[in-house]
Specification:
There is one protein chain. The chain is mostly helical. Helix content is 83%, strand content 0%. The protein is globular.
């Protein structure tokens, strides 16, 4: 095993910034396609079919944790530790995860009847799910490889093809399966990623040509296996509410909740795009011990995330009116807690990045498990009483516990004090108060937007100097990035 110990390659600020800009722009364009298609889906699918299709996606996310062994999570750190053997490492990791998926597929086939009954889908859809999970992780391997190599163009193209393919094939298959349109939606969602997975599986193998390497496997499993309970806990936080709503309240309520949830997590377009550019840069800076620069940039990131959260909260009701039919309008009452939960995730991911850098994945797992128990218990208690709306608040509480746990782990176990904690607390509490304040105005559109204009003006006045500095910084750094190519 060759561990990278030489001089670290300096990545220019222009390159990082440019990749961040393009990730954000492409994410907006790709999500715009999804937004445009959303009214088509809601008009072609009943709320029950919408719930069935999205609950199936929840099962895909859940089963993917076990079939791929969370090995994708070690791709970033492996770039530092196996710089000259990176392709071989990826090829070996891919072989390990696909082998695990094949074993699980065999077990499912033996117990197909009870598995089909448990999940509530036909045997054909169950088998399709597990065959899909053999090859779909290869897309994640390739996207993560490109991300840590700052090859944003290739990464964006993968996302674009997946999005356009999903929308076009979903509509086509829903027309074919007119009596069971949720089946068409499922097939249209899986097929583009499955086909790309086949191609990237071959490409990764061709570039690495390693199936088995004991050193690679031990390294990957030490990082990845503790993340199985972590990712399982995240799925519980993100997906289990929909499954429980479907079982307790019915497919229709699951569809309404999912529709509101789908709008609320549009915020993640921006937070994920920022994170995609942030993580490789963060790893490089941590590797060189440049923590003061990390803190300064992170403060700007947090302020931007909070401001965007408030904008999404303000426009929520009108967005739902545009994207859905009247049957889906009650979903507006889940927007605020879910957006704040997404913001909370944006905050705590910074602490997870520290834990992953130090390869302390058991800490990640422990925090997530505790938060998942909180979320599941509250769902079990409150959904039967207050219905699907309760799930939005239990999700928010789960993410708040997760933020607290990860903060505690990095602060008192890893002894890292990189971020400005008092500043982050004020930001999150203030954003939450403002968000719920706007929710009280959801039935008063003129007053809500009047207050929003005043709020935006105040922020612009208070942050005028910072905004000007940020614009100048972007222009200067982006220009340097272009010249350096």
């Amino acid at each position: 095993m060759e561990v990278f110990m030489g001089k670290k390659r300096e990545v220019s600020a222009g390159t990082v910034l440019k990749s961040g800009i393009w990730y954000t722009v492409s994410s907006i364009c790709i999500r715009a396609i999804g937004i445009i298609s959303s009214p088509i889906y809601t008009r072609m699918l009943t709320t029950a079919d919408y719930g069935m299709a999205n609950t199936y996606n929840s099962w895909v996310s859940l089963m993917n944790i076990f079939t791929c062994l969370c090995l994708v999570s070690c791709v970033g750190r492996a770039k530092l530790d196996f710089s000259n053997e990176y392709d071989a490492f990826l090829s070996s990791a891919q072989a390990l995860s696909s082998g695990a998926a094949l074993v699980i597929l065999g077990i499912v086939y033996v117990f197909l009847d009870p598995v089909s009954s448990l999940m509530g889908y036909s045997k054909g859809l169950i088998l399709l799910l597990f065959v899909y999970l053999i090859f779909s992780p290869s897309v994640d391997y390739m996207q993560n490889k490109y991300r840590f190599q700052y090859k944003y163009k290739e990464n964006i193209m993968i996302s674009f093809l997946s999005c356009v393919g999903t929308v076009s094939l979903s509509i086509a298959f829903m027309l074919v399966y007119a009596e069971e349109r949720y089946v068409g939606k499922i097939l249209g969602t899986l097929l583009p990623t499955f086909l790309m997975g086949l191609y990237f599986y071959w490409k990764i193998w061709k570039e690495g040509r390693v199936l088995f390497n004991w050193d690679y496997w031990i390294y990957a499993l030490k990082i990845a296996l503790p993340l199985i309970p972590h990712n399982l806990a995240l799925v519980i936080l993100v997906q289990i509410d929909r499954i429980m709503i479907k079982d307790i309240c019915g497919e229709s309520d699951a569809g309404i909740y999912t529709f509101g949830y789908s709008y609320a997590i549009l915020l993640s377009i921006f937070t994920n795009a920022i994170g995609q550019a942030w993580l490789p840069w963060f790893n490089d800076k941590m590797d060189r011990g440049e923590k003061k620069e990390i803190k300064a940039v992170n403060n700007l990131m947090m302020q931007l995330g909070c401001f965007l959260s408030i904008l999404f909260i303000v426009g929520g009701p009108e967005a739902l009116m545009i994207l859905g039919t009247e049957d889906y309008f009650p979903a507006k009452w889940v927007i605020v807690p879910i957006i704040l939960g997404t913001l909370c995730q944006y905050f705590y991911t910074n602490y997870v990045d520290i834990e992953l850098f130090h390869k302390k994945t058991p800490l990640v797992a422990l925090s997530s498990i505790l938060a998942a128990f909180v979320n599941y218990g509250l769902n079990l208690l409150l959904i039967p009483i207050w219905g699907y709306r309760a799930a939005a608040y239990t999700t928010l509480l789960g993410y708040m516990f997760l933020l607290l746990f990860h903060f505690s782990a990095t602060r008192w176990v890893l002894k890292e004090k990189i971020f400005d904690t008092p500043f982050r607390i004020v930001l999150f509490v203030g954003t939450s108060a403002i968000g719920f304040g706007f929710m009280l105005l959801y039935d008063h559109i003129l007053l809500r937007y009047g207050v929003a204009v005043i709020f935006t003006g105040i922020v612009a006045m208070l942050k005028k100097d910072d905004i000007i500095k940020l614009i100048l910084f972007v222009k200067a750094r982006y220009g340097k990035g272009e010249e350096g190519e």
